[in-house]
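Input record, target 12 of the design panel.
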């Protein structure tokens, strides 16, 4: 959670790179935090074609 305090909203990919942890571990923890309403997720397209990026931020 400290990284989200420091950097603001990040994608799961960003979190994996910065924390050097497996993608599934990051996702599992984000889901737990989401259920506890500690983090929120939102999508942003950033003007690119394709799926929008999912960002995670502290509530």
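The sequence produced for target 12 reads:
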């Amino acid at each position: 959670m400290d990284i989200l305090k420091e950097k603001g909203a990040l994608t799961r990919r960003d979190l994996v790179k910065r924390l050097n942890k497996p993608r599934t571990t990051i996702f599992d923890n984000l889901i737990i935090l989401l259920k506890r309403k500690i983090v929120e997720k939102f999508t942003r397209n950033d003007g690119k074609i394709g799926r929008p990026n999912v960002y995670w931020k502290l509530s």
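The chain has a mean pLDDT of 94.
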